[in-house]
């Protein structure tokens, strides 16, 4: 099947894309530029400048387009045909000098010294249980403690019976946890008494004119401390002070009774 | 001189960071300034050239008392303030009618400047044809051997490429190749000094066309051009070239952007990829070869034949 005739007919329908030049053009495709060093026809340029320039430029542009179409072309979706441009060949000066390397910050110096490296955690992690890549946190991630699972293994429990006993024990015991040997009964009694006093004095007249209840001690508050007058008997004062001093010193150098002190301390705690 | 600003909020900090020197730079900003007196031609030229460079270009509307070849300070100030490194100054006087000065900055100082006079000008509005969508990358065609031989022309070529190249892209959509800037240089050098433009009697033709791609029966389309943009006829006047050392620093490519050399891999004449493997030295004495008993050296050469016959009988 000889299709050459048909091909020829097809080709002749369209205009040629080939251009003949004495000296081939130089290209810098990174800049989409073509450089033509062929001599121009001076008289044509003088007489019919615009037309000549247009046709001359058309030839140059055709060669440039041919060259561009020789680059690796890819077909991108919604965009069309995209040509990958090479790096620029002509040296074009920069506008600012190259940046100077910044000195490392305090942290960077420390990290270098200690050999600390930044470990970036990836968003997705391979979950063995589910057998697929899921996010580390967030929606449908591995971080949710199995709250949304329909079936969860009972973890850290020995037997189901022990679990039940634990629960019932928790419910029944209303006693607070006591750290020391203090009697729980006594503590409760003092606590109650304190609460009664608080309730009693929380009236407008601070409980002074309340009718006394049978069996209740009337004088709950401690007696007010009485002080001697400053302008009293000097002799009396002297005796009082000396008696205190004698009590301390008289015990033949033993100021502190260690045994008594320990006992008292234990009682208090 | 501009005082250094200390950022007081995040917004200013971001702006300052944008203006910092970087390894891969931003698109250059250009400013179009009017001198103390301008003509209508110059004004139109400035606005058209600004339009060609749609984004990143600032057109000053007021007249400024600015003389680029005499005094640099006001120019430095304008460029620093607007963070621009390209400028065009238009002026008109009896001595230099319809004057344009194209220039570049590096590191806050003027790098190089070229002054051109407009001989003929046709604005974009005068040419009633559809214009291309602005912001596209143009194609460039430089015609004339002067662009390879003459320093003025080389600098002008470099400048034009710098002015209109747009953003550096790794790949380009073929349908986005909409217009072409063609610069043609005519004339010849009348004296041996090819740095002084007054030795030229030639002109520069600046033309901008829109590209129409038509079917060609093959993958590559047929190109047709349509007149679009401003058309100018320039003539070179004064120039100021960049100092060698400064130009060297300005065109320095940082190590990170240089293509990495792969050792021991190359391409031979045919075009095949060839690699070289370096093998260490071999001790030929310790080579493992096929052992041939017949070639073994006996202790006494006399007994050789006897031994042989004896062995044969035994076998």
From TrEMBL, chain A:
Cited InterPro entries: Ribosom_reg
Region feature (Disordered): 207-230
Cellular component GO terms, alphabetical: nucleus
Pfam families from the UniProt entry: RRS1
Record keyword Nucleus present: yes
Cellular compartments annotated: Nucleus
Keywords: Nucleus, Ribosome biogenesis
Nucleotide-binding in keyword set: no
GO BP annotation list: ribosome biogenesis
Role summary: Involved in ribosomal large subunit assembly.
Similarity field: Belongs to the RRS1 family.
UniProt protein name: Ribosome biogenesis regulatory protein
Biological source species: Cetraspora pellucida
Automatic annotation (TrEMBL), chain B:
Annotated segments matching region Disordered: 290-315
Location of the protein in the cell: Nucleus, Nucleolus
Signal peptide range in chain numbering: none
Pfam families for the chain: Brix (PF04427)
Entry GO terms, CC: nucleolus
Major site of localization recorded for this protein: nucleus
Protein name: Ribosome production factor 2 homolog
């Amino acid at each position: 099947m000889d299709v050459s005739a048909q091909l020829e007919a097809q080709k002749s329908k369209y205009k040629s894309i080939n251009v003949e030049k004495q000296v081939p053009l130089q290209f810098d495709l990174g800049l989409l530029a073509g450089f033509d060093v062929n001599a121009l026809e001076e008289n044509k340029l003088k007489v019919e400048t615009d037309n000549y320039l247009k046709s001359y430029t058309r030839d140059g542009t055709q060669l440039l387009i041919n060259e561009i179409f020789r680059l690796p072309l890819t077909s991108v979706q919604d965009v069309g045909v995209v040509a990958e441009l090479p790096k620029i060949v002509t040296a074009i000066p920069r506008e600012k000098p190259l940046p100077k390397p910044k000195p490392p910050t305090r942290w960077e110096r420390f990290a270098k010294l200690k050999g600390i490296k930044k470990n970036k955690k990836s968003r997705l992690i391979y979950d063995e249980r589910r057998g697929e890549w899921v996010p580390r946190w967030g929606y449908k991630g591995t971080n949710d403690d199995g709250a949304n699972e329909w079936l969860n293994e009972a973890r850290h429990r020995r037997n189901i019976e022990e679990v039940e006993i634990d629960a019932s024990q928790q419910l029944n015991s209303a006693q607070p946890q006591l750290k020391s040997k203090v009697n729980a009964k006594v503590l409760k009694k003092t606590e109650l008494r304190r609460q009664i006093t608080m309730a009693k004095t929380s009236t407008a007249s601070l409980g002074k004119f309340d009718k006394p209840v049978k069996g209740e001690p009337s004088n709950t508050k401690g007696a007010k401390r009485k002080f001697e007058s400053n302008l009293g008997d000097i002799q009396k004062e002297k005796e009082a002070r000396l008696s205190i001093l004698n009590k301390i010193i008289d015990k033949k150098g033993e100021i502190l009774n260690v045994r008594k002190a320990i006992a008292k301390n234990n009682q208090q705690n | 001189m501009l005082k250094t600003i200390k950022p007081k909020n995040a917004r200013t900090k971001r702006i300052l960071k944008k203006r910092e020197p970087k390894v891969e730079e931003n698109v250059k900003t250009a400013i179009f300034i009017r001198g103390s007196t301008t003509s209508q031609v110059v004004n139109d030229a400035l606005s058209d050239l600004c339009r060609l460079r749609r984004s990143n270009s600032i057109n000053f509307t007021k007249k400024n008392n600015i003389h680029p070849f005499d005094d640099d300070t006001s120019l430095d100030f304008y460029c620093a303030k607007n963070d621009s490194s390209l400028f065009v100054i238009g002026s008109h006087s009896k001595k230099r009618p319809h004057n344009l000065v194209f220039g570049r900055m590096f590191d806050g100082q003027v790098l190089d400047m070229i002054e051109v006079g407009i001989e003929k000008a046709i604005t974009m509005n005068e040419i009633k044809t559809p214009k291309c969508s602005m912001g596209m990358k143009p194609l460039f065609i430089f015609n004339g051997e002067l662009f390879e031989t003459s320093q003025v022309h080389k600098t002008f070529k470099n400048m034009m490429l710098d002015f209109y190249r747009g953003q550096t892209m790794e790949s380009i959509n073929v349908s986005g190749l909409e217009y072409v800037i063609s610069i043609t240089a005519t004339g010849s050098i009348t004296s041996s000094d090819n740095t002084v433009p007054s030795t030229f009697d030639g002109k520069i033709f600046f033309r901008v066309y829109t590209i129409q791609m038509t079917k060609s029966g093959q993958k590559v389309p047929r190109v047709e051009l349509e007149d679009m943009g401003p058309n100018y006829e320039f003539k070179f006047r004064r120039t100021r070239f960049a100092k060698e050392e400064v130009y060297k620093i300005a065109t320095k490519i940082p190590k990170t952007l240089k293509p990495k050399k792969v050792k021991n891999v190359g391409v031979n004449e045919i075009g095949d990829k060839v690699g070289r493997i370096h093998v260490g030295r071999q001790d030929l004495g310790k080579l493992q070869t096929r052992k041939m008993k017949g070639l073994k050296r006996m202790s006494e050469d006399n007994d050789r034949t006897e031994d042989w016959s004896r062995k044969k009988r035994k076998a």
